[in-house]
């Protein structure tokens, strides 16, 4: 690109110098010398066009440059020397402007390559040594100074880090990461220096994979080819035909020259690549890498969408769903002990437990005398107390099973996931339910995808039919294909192509055949050299499904702008060609008119850089505000867990203990949860309403608060009717359960709705 730009600029300088100096000699009366200078000024452009045309013909492509070549040759043969050099000036200026516009449009992808780190600061014998990036190995201890790029993937070992992840996510606001958080290479340290432990080598890290993908996208064939070539197939013959007819009917070859001049260099070779690269740049800025302009065009025409469930519609990793605690034990104590012990394990479930504890802001202890037994569980001491965590079979082989265990295991089996039991000082203190959760943004992302033109959404999964249909109903897909093998997914996509252009979204190695089979394959996240990223045509560099809807919207808008530029530019060229054929537009003036057309279509194509992202709201909250709102929900999670536990235990605990259990629960609700909901109504919702716009966008959410408060009032009233030393009647217990089930359902739904609103404002 740079070399081509330099050639165009050199031709422009030579032709302008020839034009100006030739005009000077003409004014001084040296006509022959002026003609020679103008001819010499046109020759470099002529040589370059011969080279470009031969290359195009060798690739069996439509040679749009052939029109410019014939025009300059015709001008010299017909002794229209001034016209010839003016065509050269216009051609070189248009090419230079095109190169500038393409560099401007592609700067987001180029910026990714420019940020690639080349060295790392490694601790060697307590001294910090700067080493080449390829010398970094997993488990190396690294220092990342302020303003430096994280060199490789790793885990944060310092207490906190402030990071600018805009290069990967497109979000300019710095984010805060806590000790133990996973770090991705290519992210900028926007705060104080911190230490990290490498988990991958440079070649296997996130940013290295992104650099390979970007390099491949930039070295791919020019993105103008598909859209432009279709029009060039008839526009070039049309131009030559009109020129031939004008010559044949009038016997004047100058008219034929005039027709070809106004058809040169044609908006096809200018507007389409600029618009397409602009669209690709917008997508790259939002964390979506499209490997070629042809894929952007296909993306705009996609109507059928296939999703792999795991890792796309769901997070693809275990997350804490709930904490079950034995009577009198705080759920945070159960989670804290489990996470403290799990710090010593490298198991994927252990990492999920530790992450959940960090998210809830729990302070973890360093365990002692830890033993891990075959992946089944761990034994050790936490704060001087013996603790055991692991599977039900492992924990109950050492400690008696609690009476609630079977009901808990039944619920986990019904909902999917795994159970981790926790014992403290010889008794089971509780259990954790971990599962692969549906992404928070998934339902919203699917709605946005439909708004962007998707007509049919199909979910592919290896899960059994019952679980698959449940998830499909929750997220809102049109069709569910369960119990699918990789070969089955590929066959389903090939069958789906009969409905139209198809897109497949996946993230695992087993998704690679399906991604390759679809017209457009989309990989979730560029994790090193993952097979899915290599096989895909589009890579989401940020783990956000709603960015795909933004890319689809951008593709639609980009293609529309490219078509507008082509149709308008070619339409004006055809009109000018007709005028020239009738003899009312001489070649010299035609060259100037064509330059005006070229500039107009280039400026219109650059409108693609101003495409507004597809968002529900054009306003947003800061990262700090969003983090604070979500932190409030995480802090209330143990209360919801306790509410669930008490609700399910009412039929199993001793009648004499019912009043104490619900009194303790009511106290938690009155002191922590209800004040939070009131503060939301008075302090948070007015701010959200201003951002969302409309008359009263938070009215439905405020109405839910009224229902929550009413259920709380009914709960307190019934608790007050239970005798202090008595046993509640069966009707009272049944009414308590109805209220608690209703309160749990509405609170969890309410929290999920608030989280979705936060997603809209992110």
TrEMBL record:
Compartments, as annotated in UniProt: Cell membrane; Membrane
Boundaries of every P-type ATPase A domain copy: 116-214
Gene3D superfamilies associated with the record: Calcium-transporting ATPase, cytoplasmic domain N, Calcium-transporting ATPase, cytoplasmic transduction domain A, HAD superfamily/HAD-like, nmb1532 protein domain like
Keyword list, A-Z: ATP-binding, Cell membrane, Membrane, Metal-binding, Nucleotide-binding, Translocase, Transmembrane, Transmembrane helix
A Pfam family per the record: Hydrolase
Domain Hemerythrin-like, first and last residues per copy: 627-759
Residues spanning the membrane: 6-28, 35-54, 231-250, 256-277, 566-585
Family label: Belongs to the cation transport ATPase (P-type) (TC 3.A.3) family. Type IB subfamily.
Name of this chain's protein: P-type Zn(2+) transporter
């Amino acid at each position: 690109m740079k070399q081509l730009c330099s050639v165009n600029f050199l031709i422009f300088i030579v032709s302008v110098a020839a034009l100006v100096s030739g005009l000077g000699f003409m004014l001084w009366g040296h006509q022959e010398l002026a003609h020679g200078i103008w001819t010499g000024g046109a020759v470099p452009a002529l040589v370059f066009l011969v080279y470009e045309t031969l290359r195009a013909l060798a690739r069996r492509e439509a040679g749009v440059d052939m029109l410019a070549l014939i025009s300059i040759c015709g001008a010299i043969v017909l002794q229209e020397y001034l016209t010839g050099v003016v065509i050269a000036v216009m051609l070189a200026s248009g090419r230079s402007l095109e190169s500038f516009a393409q560099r401007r449009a592609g700067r987001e992808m180029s910026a990714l390559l420019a940020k690639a780190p080349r060295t790392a600061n490694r601790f060697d014998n307590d001294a910090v040594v700067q080493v080449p990036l390829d010398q970094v190995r997993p488990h190396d201890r690294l220092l990342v100074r302020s303003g430096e790029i994280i060199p490789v993937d790793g885990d944060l070992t310092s207490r906190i880090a402030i990071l600018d992840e805009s290069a990967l996510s497109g979000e300019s606001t710095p984010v805060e990461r806590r000790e133990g958080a996973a770090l991705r290479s290519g992210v900028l340290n926007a705060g104080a220096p911190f230490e990290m432990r490498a988990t991958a080598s440079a070649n296997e890290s996130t940013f290295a994979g992104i650099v390979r993908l970007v390099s491949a996208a930039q070295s791919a064939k020019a993105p103008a080819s598909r859209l432009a070539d279709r029009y060039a197939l008839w526009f070039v013959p049309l131009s030559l035909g009109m020129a031939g007819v004008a010559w044949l009917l009038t016997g004047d070859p100058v008219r034929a020259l005039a027709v070809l001049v106004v058809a040169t260099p044609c908006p096809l070779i200018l507007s389409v690549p600029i618009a397409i690269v602009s669209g690709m740049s917008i997508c790259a800025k939002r964390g979506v890498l499209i490997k070629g302009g042809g894929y952007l065009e296909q993306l705009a025409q996609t109507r059928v969408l296939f999703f792999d469930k795991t890792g796309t519609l769901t997070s693809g990793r275990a997350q804490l769903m709930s904490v079950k605690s034995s009577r009198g034990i705080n759920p945070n104590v159960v989670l804290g002990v489990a996470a403290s012990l799990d710090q010593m394990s490298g198991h994927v479930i252990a990492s999920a437990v530790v992450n959940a504890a960090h998210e809830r802001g729990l302070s973890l202890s360093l365990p002692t005398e830890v033993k891990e037994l075959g992946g089944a569980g761990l034994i050790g001491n936490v704060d001087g107390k013996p603790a055991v965590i692991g599977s039900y079979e492992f924990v109950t082989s050492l400690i008696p099973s609690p009476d609630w265990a079977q009901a808990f295991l039944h619920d986990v089996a019904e909902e999917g996931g795994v159970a981790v039991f926790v014992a403290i000082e010889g008794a089971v203190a509780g259990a954790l339910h971990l599962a692969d959760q549906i992404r928070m943004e998934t339902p919203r992302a699917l709605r946005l995808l439909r708004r962007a033109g998707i007509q049919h959404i199909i979910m592919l999964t290896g899960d059994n039919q019952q679980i698959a249909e449940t998830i499909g109903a929750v997220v809102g897909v049109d069709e569910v294909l369960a119990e699918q093998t990789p070969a089955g997914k590929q066959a389903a996509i090939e069958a789906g192509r009969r409905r139209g252009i198809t897109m497949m979204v996946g993230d695992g190695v087993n998704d690679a055949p399906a991604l390759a089979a679809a017209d457009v394959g989309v990989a979730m996240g560029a994790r090193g050299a993952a097979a899915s990223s290599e096989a895909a045509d589009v890579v989401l560099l940020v783990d956000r499904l709603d960015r795909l809807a933004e890319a689809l919207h951008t593709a639609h808008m980009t293609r529309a702008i490219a078509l507008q530029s082509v149709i308008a530019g070619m339409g004006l060229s055809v009109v000018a060609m007709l005028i020239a054929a009738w003899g009312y537009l001489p070649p010299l003036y035609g060259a100037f008119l064509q330059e005006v057309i070229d500039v107009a279509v280039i400026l219109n194509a650059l409108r693609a850089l101003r495409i507004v992202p597809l968002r529900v709201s054009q306003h947003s909250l800061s990262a700090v505000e969003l983090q604070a709102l979500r932190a409030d929900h995480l802090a209330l999670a143990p209360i919801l867990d306790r509410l669930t536990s008490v609700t399910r235990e009412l039929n199993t605990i001793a009648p004499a203990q019912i009043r104490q259990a619900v009194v303790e629960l009511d106290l938690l609700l009155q002191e922590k949860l209800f004040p939070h909901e009131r503060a939301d109504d008075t302090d948070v919702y007015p701010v959200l309403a201003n951002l969302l716009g409309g008359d009263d966008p938070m009215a439905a959410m405020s109405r839910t608060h009224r229902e929550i408060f009413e259920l709380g009032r009914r709960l307190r009233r019934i608790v007050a009717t239970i005798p202090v030393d008595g046993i509640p009647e069966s009707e009272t217990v049944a009414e308590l359960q109805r209220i608690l089930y209703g309160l749990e359902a509405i609170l969890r739904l309410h929290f999920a709705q608030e989280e979705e609103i936060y997603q809209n404002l992110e």
